[in-house]
Predict the 3D structure of the following.
Amino acid sequence: MNRAGLRSTALFVLFALVGALIAARARYSADLSAFLPRSPTATQQLLVEQLREGPAARLILVAIGGADAGARARVSMALGRALRTDPAFASVSNGEAQTLERDRAFLFQHRYLLSEAVTPAHFTVPALHEAIVGSLQALASAEGPLLKPLFAHDPTGELLTILDAIGTERTPRSSEGVWSSRDGAQALLVLQTRAPGADTDAEEAACAKVRQAFAAARAALPPQERAALTLRLSGPPVFAVASRALIEGEVVRLSGLSALFISLLLLFAYRSVSALLLGLVPVAAGALTGVAAVALGFPAVHGLTLGFGVTLIGEAVDYSIYLFVQGTSHAGGDWRHSVWPTIRLGALTSIAGFAALLPSNFQGLAQLGLYSVAGLTAAALTTRYVLPAWLPARLAMRDLRAPGAWLLRVLQQLRRVRAALVLIPLVAGVILVLHRGALLSHDLAALSPVPAAEQDFAEQLSADLGAPDVRYMVLTSARQPEAALAAAESLGQRLRPLVDTGVIAGFDSASRYLPSEALQRARQQSLPPAPQLQTRLSEALVGLPVSEAVLQPVLAEVEQARTTALLRRADLEGTSFAAAVDALLVPTSGGYSALLPIAAAGSVDLSDEAAARVRQAIGAGNEHGVLLDLKGETNRLYLGYLKQAIELSLLGFAAIVLLLGAMLRSAVRVMRVLAPLALAVIAVAGLLIASGHSLTILHLVGMLLIVAVGSNYALFFDRSAQAPQEASVSLTLTSLLLANTATVLAFGVLAFSRVPVLSDLGSTVAPGAFLALLFAAMLSERAAPEHIP
Amino acid sequence: VSARAAGLAGVLTLLCVAPCSAFAAAGTAPSAQADPAFAQVLTLLAARRHGHAPFTEVHEMAMLKEPLHSSGELFYDAPDRLEKRTLTPRAESLVLDHGILTAQRGPHRHVLELSAYPQVVPFVESIRATLAGDEAALERYFSIDFQGELAHWTLHLTPKDPALAHTVKDITIEGERDVLHSVVIRQSDGDRSLITIGPEITP
């Protein structure tokens, strides 16, 4: 090894050590952060907070199936008992009478502090008269038997007012005393974890606890019931845990498969273990540098990035293939002048393509860009400056001239049918026009690693539980919880008319279960002292068939409510309202946020007009509220990503064109390099659309990568045509086929991933890279030496 | 999601007084009815697709000094939809549609799923099942005693389930061929309601 070789080797080792250190200290994640925006707008920030910490992100839905309703109910109750004592769960609801009884008792006991109807005017004689007439009417209705025992204690119907406000539109079905699915085949529970949804470790532990409790409850049943019982978990935390496991598993599996296939390919081609090992050096250097760069540039290296990184194996190995196959046919230093400039330009175009992803707001894409730019740079530099020094004087490799000669004949055949390429834009054009309505996928769910069947199951459970997806919520914040509650009350007052006029179906608010102290005090002050109430009641009862004696109990109870201590959060403990308050009044970095989920009238979606009315209502007063449309915002986020992906892909394409123009200095040569790549992109787009795909962000990015990666092949054909005397065309062909196969293998492995973003990218680039080589070969110019026999 | 799902959905079950499970366990005794007149009445009733008639109702409650009077119109669409539209003294609408009871009074609307409120069942299902000529439904909830003939019959229903018997003592429905004239519901605490149904209103 000469001195330059020693120096580069020393530098390489140093870099490798630093890279390894950074990679070892890096934080790795596989949560949903990859899909979140890197620099969110204010509204996106609210969305991100909801997705990470919001109440919906903490809900685990549990379905117990099999056996009979009795066994399912017993397991549901046993699960409830076990999990209620576990601090990991903020609430455990399964519709058991015991919990409902506690809830009922709580609402009834505190009805005069909780009822929105309690105002001074409510206890005037005419209002009392009116309220009692209403209660009598309810007594005479089909609900009468339910209300009759309450009348003497609650003649003004405060409990009904409270229940009305809470909203009871859709109640879960009950079977054997616990909630069941609508078809009665499953017992259902809803768990709310204390940990935020983004804490995947805690959520994983919570899911494990549910499974354990289920196993224990099942073990207590007679053997014949035991076997048939099944447990199915659903909901955002479950999805997060499953996605993480899936992504982690896929990264290991895909990297392993990819490395195995490519090693076998190289071993078959080279018939030399040392050539194989040397060929993998730039790959390792690239991967290490990529991880280190992402670790430095982002808070955490995402598992998906490592998944995308699998493709780097296929590309980084190309450079050493060109070196070994083409370089060895030249004497020593010649390689650097003959082959390297083409490799360099190919690497630069690839890097230009990936660099276009760097500004992406979609974190996953930005990480992919950085990983690939750093990885490809390191792999190319290693190939140029380190590998040659490590090569033994004679690398005992298989002689690839024979297959090269065969490939040359294939090439000549291919050139004869190049006219057929005219068909590609025509056929693809027809396909694209036929499917013009559904070219792009506008649904974020297309990117989700959660299978559609699981998403549907979660939706079904939510519907059965009478918990339609919360799409809309009004948010307001304040420094202190009291102020946040007061703000929620003020917003609630302004939303109430919209409910009464049917603009929205209803809303929820923490102040329903825990009014602010000011409001509680105001309600207490609205209650007349016992003697006064007695006088007013007797006047109110004139003309009604109710005697004063019947209403004796209410006098004492109002007096008690008037003087009792105010409700505090601790008083809610043991009811399901505790979890509701914790979910709807949440501590944030700057204080507290109150959330008011809005239920749309009629359908799931709020009409534009209704949304405008809500915004108008909540913008009117002092307390500022924001209407957040979770699904709409998510879709807007995705559409933003999609738009940006299109822009960045075009930008990357433009950068590649400029780079080629600057290096090749010939418009004709640039066109000749680009033509097969453009054809490959068009063909792949046509293939994807024809096979029923709508293009997602990753398909679009994949098309950019077809150009970025495919340019290498086109450039080699360009070089062969430009300087035929310097290159052995047959060896160039062999190395191209080998490099291409490696790339197609790596992306092809990705195409079979169960993670949509990975498979979208793989299924675009794998066929695209192959077609780029094929089309480049077909369009290549005849070089002089080929005629020499 | 959370608040509603985390225990709030279904909060009206709070009002549920009787244990729901006892209700589901109601057995089905074989029919004691061999009366051909009963079979005829049921066949005639089952053949009716629609009904629309005025009603008056009197509620007698021990805790009230005087009975409550109301009146309105009944609408029936075979076999699962029954609407009781009260017009006086105050507008109220009760709609039973496929086992879901919706009560609307002024701006307030309550929705009950009958399966969750067994104590409400005899009040509505007795009338609905009779109108539908649905013997199976009647037998599910009641012991049936049929008296009289086609021209003037009396159906006496006694809840089978102890949980139902806890609220409703018995129900007596009088009618003529496929027309109901009156429904008397006697509650276990002695309270009583009498619905008198007027002549069919033809559209």
